[in-house]
Amino acid sequence: MSAAEQLNSMIERIGDARLPTEHGEFRIVAFRAADGHEHVALVAGDVDAAVPLVRVHSECLTGDILGSLKCDCGPQLAAAQEAIATEAAIGGAGIVVYLRGHEGRGIGLANKIRAYELQDQGLDTVDANVRQGLPIDAREYDVAAAILADLGVVSVRLMTNNPRKVDGLARHGIEVVDVVALVAAPTTESAGYLRTKRVRLGHLLPE
Fold first, then answer.
1. Residue 120 lies in domain
2. 3-class SS letters over the chain
3. What are the φ/ψ torsions at residue 164 (nearest 5 degrees)?
4. Which residues pair with 178 in a beta bridge?
5. What is the pLDDT of residues 18-63, one digit of tens each?
6. Are residues 79 and 169 in the same domain?
7. At residue 207, does pLDDT exceed 90?
8. Most exposed of 86, 87, 121, 150 (fewest Cβ within 10 Å)?
9. Would you call 151 exposed, middle or buried from its count of C-beta atoms within 10 A (0-12, 13-18, 19+)?
10. Who contacts 110 (Cβ-Cβ below 8 Å, separation ≥6)?
11. What is the pLDDT of residue 121?
């Protein structure tokens, strides 16, 4: 089986609809992966006409939905949607690939909340995972690459601070032609978390 066929076998496209949002209008395309997880892509503009601006976003219930100040996930998602809507408005294109099953860098929601409890006791985000006997980062990006390939995308300008995402897409045939920083202003609650991401996880964040 070729690399392209392997990617195609990972996902099934389920639905495609218009999604107006407070950040702009998108198409929302739903996918079901072979492992049962369901993912979506928010698409703006004609991805066949230009190298799209892409955000691969890991699910974060606490940050994306509940407004947690402990992480930068919610602000990053909003900023990505706004940047992509702006890109489409000037003739470009963009995609947010929203990956389910990535909660807590892949350890799951309940384990993430337990990690929060350990952080309240003084551990950082890395040691809180390790204390539970869990991976520091269990996320894979093959499904993201498969979704992009399904949408006809082979090259992207990737909005990320995480070099692992660049490598993860490249390993599965998606060329990253540019990396665009996506930095959310730190809060009192998130400053330590962001410092740990920079120092211990290698994220490209300002000091």
1. 106-138
2. CCHHHHHHHHEEEEEEEEEEECCEEEEEEEEEECCCCEEEEEEEECCCCCCCEEEEEECCHHHHHCCCCCCCHHHHHHHHHHHHHHHHHCCCEEEEEEECCCHHHHCCHHHHHHHHHHHHCCCCHHHHHHHCCCCCCCCCCHHHHHHHHHCCCCEEEEECCCHHHHHHHHCCCCEEEEEECCCCCCCCCCHHHHHHHHHHCCCCCCC
3. -65, -30
4. 157
5. 999 999 999 999 999 999 999 999 999 999 988 999 999 999 999 9
6. yes
7. no
8. 121
9. buried
10. none
11. 97
pLDDT digits (tens, 9 = 90+) for 132-185: 999 999 999 999 999 999 999 999 999 999 999 999 999 999 999 999 999 888
**59/102 Cα distance (integer angstroms):** 5
In 10 A of CB 178, how many CB atoms?
11
8 confidence band (pLDDT: 50, 70, 90): confident
Tell me the catalytic residues: 137, 139
The answer to whether residue 124 sits within a structural domain is yes
Quick: pLDDT tens for 62-112: 999 999 999 999 999 999 999 999 999 999 999 999 999 999 999 999 999
Domains held by the chain: number: 2
Asked if 118 and 51 sit in the same domain, the reply is: no
Residue 187: HSE in the Cβ half-sphere, 13 Å Cα cutoff: 12
Whether residues 114 and 131 share a domain: the answer is yes
